[in-house]
Design goal:
The complex is a heterodimer of chains A (about 450) and B (about 700). With about 450 residues, chain A is α+β, with helices and mostly antiparallel strands. Helix content of chain A is about 20%, strand content about 30%. Chain A folds into 3 domains: about 270 residues, Rossmann fold; about 110 residues, Macroglobulin (MG2) domain (Immunoglobulin-like); about 30 residues. In chain A, the strands form 8 sheets. Chain A has an 8-stranded mixed beta sheet with strand order 2-1-5-6-16-15-13-10, with helices on one face. In chain A, strands 19, 21, 22, 25 and 26 form a 5-stranded antiparallel beta sheet that branches. In chain A, strands 20-28-27-23-24 form a 5-stranded mixed beta sheet, with no helix packed on it. Chain B has 21 helices and 24 strands. The N terminus of chain B is likely disordered. The radius of gyration of chain B is 53 Å and the shape is elongated. The chains are: A alpha+beta (about 450), B alpha+beta (about 700). The interface between A and B is large, with 108 and 107 residues. Chain B: This is Dolichyl-diphosphooligosaccharide--protein glycosyltransferase subunit 2.
Chain lengths: ~450, ~700
């Protein structure tokens, strides 16, 4: 009887989970769907509602949970329950349930996306997770980013920790093609990116006059973070294309900053609305793979004039190579248009590296002559561009030398030898007849 | 759990306030209006359920937004339907009546009579708090909306006691008698229901019962929680699994109940005014919630506080806490109720103003003037004693009519942090290279630099200087010398100014940066002794950019300026010296396309020109021609060819065979492979052996005959 109950439970569970599994993150539709939002306090849900609403209106299924809720978990029976995680719980010292630092890193390692909103008084746990992502927050827990020359003019905030920054990364794929006109309001802690990590990018940098210090105490020693080395918002794209957004400010996501007007110190232009909404909406599109996610299909190569893919090429063959590249637009795969996709014909090192021609509809092609070196080669497309997922395709193909009968024959230079041999033979024939029948 | 919740909420509140203990709360303003219109946007003329409609309409009513939904007729229709239907629950009725109170739909009086009796029965039978709350609430609303219905409760005392029976000793309430869990949220509902009972009672409620209820309220206020900035709020002690109410909805429930109860009872509740003010501060500190429910709770509670009988909170707010000395900003203070309406006649007194962190008092006991037009209190000019800096202003509200002190809560003295900003004068700037023995100055660039910085500081000439960007100093030094930079900062009042940020930055060509804090001992001076710094500079010789950053939150002319270049000649790095730190790679260069590579094919072997080969081909045929010519000259003949048929046939076949072998060789050269050739050669060879033997033996015998003859 109890077995039957277990079986029943299992079946109901499956039925319950099935719709989720069908909707899960997949290479075919790479957009995240189910997002776990961990909050310090449920009031953040209301105070940051514009940001959450922009996600929900794009079809994300947000699951708001308190970060110390003992029932939260990221996975069940080895299956991840969510495609992405938003940590808006800067002060949390330890998560509830089965979530801890390792679980979050495993979540990212398995290709899922993460948004971290830290803030003043960020806990060690949040700092450690950020460090694992290649981002080091200022170790002084009382430090805030201060900027006395590019702060946001405000009647009520006089300590210049409310920064208006417009030093964005120059990338259409990350921030959208529409230029962000208004500066972004930022109030929080600064971080630097680890110089040894090649995967972290500063999206929003502080101005050269910024520094990170406690505004209430006098400075005796130089602050550890200064100038444009301070990153306010950074992103990481891991090697498995998981994307992470790390912000030193939680209020950058808040309704108050979204709605607030902004005027940068020293500038006469007063923007009606800060750039926060546009900046974070576009950035969240990138983080949740609605932009900049590439896939390559229809990789083909063959000899010129043929259609079938050979198992082996001979040296000096002329071949054609083609590939189709698509970008995920959030709803469908659109042809990816660029002019810098490159193909390598590779054995230990590239023998041929060629930029592919394109028909502007996502089809890339080229033709070249196989080098006169035989061995096992690879067709390699290594496409790493700022903000795009990296494409790394390689296809092995052997290249053989000429066969004995494939060399050139009847070489003109050898005509004297041929002539000598045949005249000798003719002479022999004549000689035999003459020798035998001469009288 | 509750404390953690508190900690989390603190973060939120901090996000909305400056990180100072004393915060400025702003009353409800225009930004709330636009946010309300955005949040309560009707979908196709309707706000959804009656509850949501009520929340939207009530918010609009409080904020004075005269925007009835287009579909008010459809809303009225559903109100009438709910009121007219006998199957409506008290909860539906309550919200329908609340909507009706705002929309004033024409509901048939007969319908009211029908539901009154039903509600009365429900009140008498009710066992749970929510039943009481909904039915009593509905009855109160009907009393307002209908004149002739018989609404008075006969057994008001009994009902009062049965609701009171659900209360706990700590001032909280249970939802029902068989549910032991007590809740602060329920306390608010109970107070509202009890207020309703009192107003509906046909005879006076027992005063002792009301007295105990008042002490219950005081007990409830013992559990009030507090933020550092003076805001008070209520929160549930136990987070129930099913019905969790956050601090906002809990507090607003208590405020609603409390104000409703206060308005129906006579006598004083003895609640301290600062707690009421603290509650108002709590609601204002939230800012603009992004959630419709939270928004309604905030606005509705503030409206309850606005007109409550206990004490009306007055909010002292400053439109600007950053005052510029150069612009001669006025100090303005506004005193409003929470919803932004005018306060009774009063005077705002500036009790004290002092630089934060010090005891020196800059201003004492000043009365602010009142400007009727802008309804604000102001100080014309800041007194001469106020220099730039961070100040703590302490204000006090003094009512003209002493009676008002009982009605209004102002929270005593209000501390407000004020930033007074101004232009800082920079003097005596000089930069010099000193030899290591003091005094002998090798290079001193004084004038140029002074005028340079000063011209930069002047707002008008700033642009001019940017154009003249080449106006920079250029210095050179070796490791035995020192760099000295000094300048003086003075405030508008002639005091020495100490900025928070005074950095000298040296940046090497390889982007390695070094930052030095410019020390201040009356005069800002930094001496860089390169001998002691070589290790810190990683022994990197070459050109360094010098950047000076001076900034402070009260300094209006904070600047970051490249002063010039210094060419350092440092000794070679010893083996063990630390390597300069890794610089982050420029992301743009990391990702570009790579240079194309094309394979260089092996050059084909050098061959003689075709003409030469053909010439030599011709030459190789020459011996054959010579051979033929020689034969002709010798007069060869074929007279020995056998004449008889059989030997002639064999001779013919023999030579044909030889020709075939030769042809086979040609074919072997042109296309045949070795195996085919050998096979054919074998056959031809056998044939040749046979015919050759026959013809040669014939020739031999013929010649033997000839010899013997």
């Amino acid at each position: 009887m109890s077995k039957l109950v277990h079986l029943l439970g299992f079946v109901t569970l499956n039925v319950f989970l099935l719709p989720f599994l069908c909707k899960s993150f997949s290479p075919e539709t790479p957009t995240d769907r189910r997002v776990l939002v961990l909050l310090d306090d449920l009031a953040i849900q209301s105070s940051h509602s514009l940001f959450f609403k922009s996600l929900q209106s794009r079809g994300f299924d947000l699951d708001f949970k308190l970060a110390y809720d003992p029932k939260i978990s990221l996975q069940r029976y080895g299956q991840y329950l969510y495609d992405a995680l938003i940590l808006f719980s800067p002060t949390i010292e330890g998560f509830g349930g089965s979530i801890d630092q390792a679980a979050i890193l495993d979540f990212v390692d398995s290709g899922h996306d993460l948004i971290i909103g830290a803030d003043a008084n960020a806990s060690d746990l949040i700092r450690e997770i950020a460090t694992e992502c290649g981002v080091d927050f200022d170790e002084d827990s009382n430090a805030l980013v201060i900027d006395h020359t590019s702060y946001a003019v405000s009647d009520t905030e006089g300590d210049h920790t409310l920064i208006a920054s417009d030093d964005f990364i120059n990338s259409n794929v990350i921030l959208g093609s529409k230029k962000i006109e208004a500066p972004v309001l930022f109030q929080g802690i600064g971080h630097t990116i680890n110089p040894t990590s090649s995967l972290v990018l500063k999206v929003l940098s502080a101005s050269p006059s910024a520094y990170s210090a406690n505004p209430k105490s006098k400075l005796s020693s130089p602050p550890s973070l200064t100038g444009s080395a301070i990153s306010l918002v950074s992103i990481v794209q891991a090697r498995n294309n998981a994307r992470v957004l790390i912000s030193g400010s939680l209020s950058i996501f808040s309704n108050r900053f979204f709605r607030s007007g902004v005027q940068k110190a020293g500038s006469a232009i007063k923007h009606e609305k800060s750039g926060n909404e546009q900046f974070l909406t576009e950035l969240s599109k990138w983080v949740f793979h609605e932009r900049g996610h590439l896939k390559a299909v229809n990789v083909r190569h063959h000899k010129v004039g043929e259609a079938d893919e050979p198992a082996v090429y001979r040296i000096n063959d002329d071949l054609e190579y083609s590939i189709d590249i698509y970008e995920w637009s959030g709803t469908s795969w659109e042809p990816y248009v660029a002019d810098d996709v490159q193909l390598q014909f590779y054995m230990m090192s590239p023998y041929v590296l060629k930029t592919l021609s394109t028909d502007q509809k996502g089809h890339y092609f080229t033709s070249f002559k196989v080098p006169d070196v035989y061995g096992v080669f690879q067709f390699k497309v290594e496409y790493n561009r700022l903000g795009y997922t990296s494409l790394s395709l390689s296809k092995q193909i052997p290249v053989r030398p000429f066969r004995h009968n494939e060399y050139e024959r009847f070489i003109p230079a050898a005509y004297p030898y041929y002539g000598a041999a045949f005249s000798m033979m003719a002479g022999f024939f004549v000689f035999t007849a003459i020798y035998l029948y001469n009288k | 759990m509750a404390t953690r919740n508190l900690g989390g909420f603190l973060v939120l509140v901090l996000a909305f306030t400056i990180c100072e203990a004393a915060s400025v709360f702003q009353p409800i303003s225009d930004s709330h209006l636009s946010a309300a219109l955005e949040l309560f946007a009707p979908v196709s003329g309707s706000f959804g359920s009656l509850e949501e409609t009520y929340e939207a309409l009530r918010t609009f009513e409080i904020l004075g937004i005269d925007k009835k939904p287009d579909g008010s007729s459809t809303t009225c229709h559903s109100v009438e339907e709910t009121v007219g239907s006998s199957s409506s629950t008290p909860k539906d009725l309550l919200y329908a009546l609340r909507v009706n109170r705002i929309l004033k739909c024409k509901v048939n009086e007969e319908n009211f009579k029908g539901i009154v009796s039903m509600l009365k029965a429900a009140v008498n039978d009710a066992s749970s708090l929510l039943d009481f709350y909904y039915s009593v609430g509905s009855l109160v609303l009907i009393k307002e909306q209908s004149s002739d219905a018989d609404l008075l409760l006969d057994d008001a005392d009994g009902i009062f006691h049965s609701i009171k029976a659900l209360s706990q000793s700590d001032g909280r309430w249970r939802y029902s008698s068989n549910n032991p869990e007590s809740s602060t949220y329920a306390a608010g509902l109970a107070l509202e229901a009890l207020a309703g009972v009192v107003s509906l009672a046909s005879s006076e409620i027992d005063q002792s019962a009301i007295g105990t209820l008042k002490s219950d309220i005081l007990k409830l206020f013992d559990s009030i929680e507090k933020y550092d900035d003076g805001a008070f709020y209520f929160d549930e002690k136990v987070v129930g699994a099913r019905q969790h109410h956050g601090p906002l909805s809990t507090t607003s429930s208590v405020v609603r109940g409390l104000t409703a109860f206060a308005s129906v009872t006579s006598g004083n509740l003895n609640l301290p005014g600062d707690k009421i003010l603290g509650l108002a501060k709590f609601f204002l500190g939230i800012g603009i919630p992004g959630d419709a429910k939270d928004f309604f709770n905030q606005i509705d509670s503030l409206a309850c506080l606005e007109n409550n009988r206990i004490s009306v909170p007055l909010i002292l707010s400053l439109p600007a806490t950053v005052l510029s000395l150069t612009k001669k900003d006025q100090l303005k203070v506004k005193v409003n109720t929470v919803l932004g309406s005018d306060a009774p006649p009063l005077t705002v007194k500036l009790v004290r103003a002092s630089v934060s962190g010090s005891k020196d008092v800059s201003i004492e006991n000043l009365d602010l003037k009142f400007d009727k037009e802008s309804a604000s209190h102001f100080l014309d000019v800041l007194p001469k004693t106020v220099d730039v800096g961070k100040y703590l202003f302490v204000f006090e509200v003094v009512f003209h009519d002493s009676e008002h002190e009982k009605v209004y809560a102002t929270g005593g003295r209000t501390q407000v942090p004020i930033f007074v900003t101004g232009v800082i004068k920079i003097d005596n700037t000089e930069i010099a290279i000193l030899d290591s023995d003091l005094g002998s100055i090798e290079t001193q660039k004084k004038l140029a630099f002074t005028s340079f910085i000063q011209s930069f500081i002047g707002q008008e000439t700033q642009k001019k200087l940017d154009l003249a960007g080449h106006n920079v100093v250029s210095l050179s030094a070796n490791h035995l010398q020192k760099l000295r930079l000094s300048f003086q900062l003075t405030t508008p009042l002639g005091q020495v100014f100490k900025p928070h940020q005074a950095f000298l930055k040296l940046r090497h060509e390889t982007k390695v940066e070094h930052i030095f804090v410019v020390g201040n001992s009356g005069k800002f001076e930094i001496v860089l002794d390169f001998l002691g710094l070589v290790e810190k500079l990683y022994y990197l010789s070459g050109s360094y950019d010098i950047q000076l950053t001076v900034g402070d939150s009260v300094m209006e002319n904070s600047f970051l300026k490249a002063i010039g270049l210094i060419d350092l000649d440092l000794p070679e790095a010893p083996e063990k010296a630390a390597r300069p730190p890794l610089q982050p790679i420029d992301p743009y260069s990391k990702y570009g396309p790579k240079a194309e590579i094309s394979h260089i094919f092996r050059a084909p072997e050098k061959l003689p020109p075709k003409e030469l080969s053909l010439t030599f081909l011709g030459l190789t045929v020459v011996p054959f021609i010579g051979f033929l010519v020689g034969l002709l000259r010798l007069g060869v003949n074929l007279k020995n060819f056998p004449s008889s048929t059989i030997p002639a046939t064999f001779a013919f076949l023999f030579h044909l065979g030889i020709a075939a072998v030769l042809l086979l060789y040609v074919l072997f050269w042109v296309k045949l492979d070795l195996f085919t050739t050998l096979k054919a050669l074998g056959l031809l060879g056998t044939f040749l052996l046979f015919v050759g033997h026959r013809i040669l033996s014939h020739l031999a015998s013929a010649s033997a005959k000839l010899k013997s003859a």
